[in-house]
Amino acid sequence: MTAPLPDAAPANWVDRHAPAALRPWLKLGRFDRPTGIWLLMLPGWQGIALAAAMEGEAPDWRWLLAFFVGAALMRAAGCAYNDIVDRDFDAQVSRTAGRPIPSGQISVRQAWAFVIGCCLAALCILLVMPPVAIALGVGSLALVAAYPFMKRITWWPQAWLGLTFNWGALLGFAAVSGGLSWPALLLYGCGIFWTLGYDTIYAIQDLEDDALAGVKSSARRLGAATAKAVLAFYVLAFICALAAAWTGGLGPLFLPPAALFGLHLSHQAARVRLDDPQGALALFKSNPLAGLALFLALAAGAWGGPQGLF
Fold first, then answer.
1. CA 132 to chain centre
2. How would you classify residue 216: left for phi > 0, otherwise alpha for psi between -120 and 50, otherwise beta?
3. Looking at residue 105, which CATH number applies to its domain?
4. pLDDT tens for residues 3-32?
5. Domain for residue 224, yes or no?
């Protein structure tokens, strides 16, 4: 068994069970840290659930499966691309110095081949979608390409990650409905604020190393106000989720699981501590549960009597 990277679970399946020759590649795609797959996939599932609920239907499992596979592939490609661009920064940060590229396990040329292969596989999934969804999928590449550079030019790379990671909400909605509408845009806004909150929490782990390396982050910019800002981001996320459900005409069964979503976010915000990087990682890793609660709320909104929350 190889040593896990600092932000991977000690008992992760890659270090324990994957063949030794595959471990650097799986780590390049962050398959030893599956939280990111969930966080990229769930906005797509939420968009699928919202579009289906507006028609009084359950989410189609085939779309859910397609978005799971697509999210795993694109997250792997995005992480590898990010590591190519950030290889010099990563070598200066203790949490990232052991990643495959800065540690020399995988060359930059090999990493590019990995990125291209994952993108081509994801393209096969995208091409079965309606034209609007295909255009959205292609358009997302600009967001992905720009993301690694945001930490060099703005204190708010977490906001750009929100734009990027939650594009799947628009894509999932368009895949089911063939277009976009206000409920989808409001759900996208919910995801942006949600990501801004949880990735600010994640950035607490690297406060000292980022300062030494000259890397910007919302956690560094906010400083002592980080906990209050995370709460504000999460309140805005919850408001946008309610607005998406209301404009989409979802039924009252949306509300109980949506309340769980809100409670989970408030629980996180109440426990943010700048001097507790391990606690920050644990809070970050809990976010798939929050996203799953919102997905279930949107799916449940298809039922419950006359449509409309009020």
1. 22
2. beta
3. 1.10.357.140
4. 677 666 777 888 887 898 889 899 999 998
5. yes
Residue 70 tokens read as 């697509």
- Axis-axis angle for helices 157-165, 35-53 (nearest 10): 50
Torsion angles phi and psi, residue 179, rounded to 5: -165, -165
Count of domains for the chain: 1
Q: Which residues contact 96 (CB under 8 A, 6 or more apart)?
A: 86, 89, 90, 102
Q: Tell whether 288 is covered by a domain.
A: yes
Domain range for 154? 13-300
Report pTM. Answer: 0.91
- Tokens 């009597």 sit at which residue? 305
User: What is the rounded distance in angstroms from the CA atom of residue 293 to the CA atom of residue 271?
Assistant: 20
Residue 28 within a domain: yes
Per the domain annotation, does 48 fall within a domain?
yes
Q: Give the Cα separation of 130 and 300 in Å (integer).
A: 25
Give the contacts of 213 (CB within 8 A, at least 6 positions apart): 89, 92, 93
